[in-house]
Write a structure and sequence with these properties.
- The protein is an alpha+beta fold.
- It has two domains: 1-92; 96-253, Jelly Rolls (Sandwich), CATH 2.60.120.260.
- It contains seven helices and twelve strands.
- The protein has helices at 6-19, 26-46, 63-75, 79-90, 122-125, 174-180, 220-223, and strands at residues 100-103, 113-115, 117-119, 140-143, 148-152, 161-167, 190-195, 198-205, 212-218, 228-233, 244-246, 248-253.
- The protein has a five-stranded antiparallel β-sheet, with no helix packed on it. Strands 1-12-6-9 form a four-stranded antiparallel β-sheet.
- Helix 3 (63-75) packs antiparallel against helix 4 (79-90).
- The longest helix has 21 residues, at 26-46.
- The radius of gyration is 21 Å and the shape is globular.
- It starts with 5 loop residues before the first helix and ends with a strand.
């Protein structure tokens, strides 16, 4: 492997230094601590806490994730790898020319979803999902009663397509099991992924806590009519607890 370009490596180092600086000034810290104290006093007196204060520690912008990408680029010894990591971070949602991206679970950012429900509550689930996840990975569409489905039209019938998905599910804790009144052995944490009924992945394990991405080639025959349906199906079965789930989905046109 050839070494990274000195100029690029220097820029990555500089970016790492900037991203490592404290996010709060002393005055900001003081103001937040005062607000937290008042919130606790309100709770003691009236049983009411300031909900906004409870969310001040949540990363809603993906800062930690982006900082980790820059760190990974700095650790890479090959310039091409460095560029790939940085390009992916800077153009994360870009599905390329003729491609599509859906931020599943985020209102107004999933135009191709046709079945499934949003699940997004950072304050409620913050301890059940990896804080290093990009925020778009920690919201998702799910369905406990059937599949999650996305539909596409206007595809180029002469081109090949590739699917990329981000998957994650909540970390299972005794509290979560009690909340849903289920036992550990009743959980089913796998799902199938299908393109127009053709299986792309069978019984794929849904990662817990830390999000992961998977890619699949879409069979050409499924897009030959210019349309496509992507389905996530957990097949719960009687006496089992399961949910189809997806956090992000890219349908990417392969350039010839």
């Amino acid at each position: 492997m050839r070494p990274g370009h000195p100029g690029l490596s220097k820029a990555i180092q500089k970016a790492s230094e900037i991203l490592s600086q404290p996010l709060e000034t002393e005055s900001m810290q003081s103001l937040r601590q005062t607000a937290e104290k008042i919130s606790e006093e309100s709770n003691a007196l009236f049983g009411v806490k300031n909900e906004a204060i409870q969310r001040t520690g949540l990363d809603l912008t993906g800062f930690d994730w982006f900082r980790q990408q820059v760190k990974s680029a700095g650790l890479a010894s090959d310039e091409n790898v460095q560029k790939q990591i940085l390009d992916r971070a800077l153009h994360y949602e870009d599905a390329g020319e003729g491609g599509f991206y859906d931020d599943a679970g985020a209102d107004g950012r999933q135009p191709h979803r046709i079945e499934g429900e949003n699940l997004w509550n950072p304050a409620q689930f913050v301890h059940l999902l990896d804080p290093a996840n990009r925020p778009s990975a920690s919201s998702f569409v799910h369905n406990r009663q059937g599949p999650v489905r996305f539909a596409y039209t206007g595809l180029d019938a002469s081109s090949a397509y590739r699917l990329r998905v981000t998957l994650v599910t909540l970390k299972v804790t005794p509290e979560l099991l009690a909340r849903f009144e289920i036992k550990e052995d009743q959980l089913k944490r796998t799902q199938d992924i299908l393109a127009d009924g053709i299986i792309l992945a069978k019984d794929l394990e849904i990662p817990s806590y830390t999000a992961q991405q998977y890619e699949f080639d879409i069979p050409r025959e499924t897009t030959s009519d210019g349309s496509l349906e992507i389905r996530f199906d957990a097949h719960a079965g009687e006496g089992r607890f399961a949910a189809a789930v997806v956090s992000e989905i890219w349908l990417m046109k392969q350039q010839q």
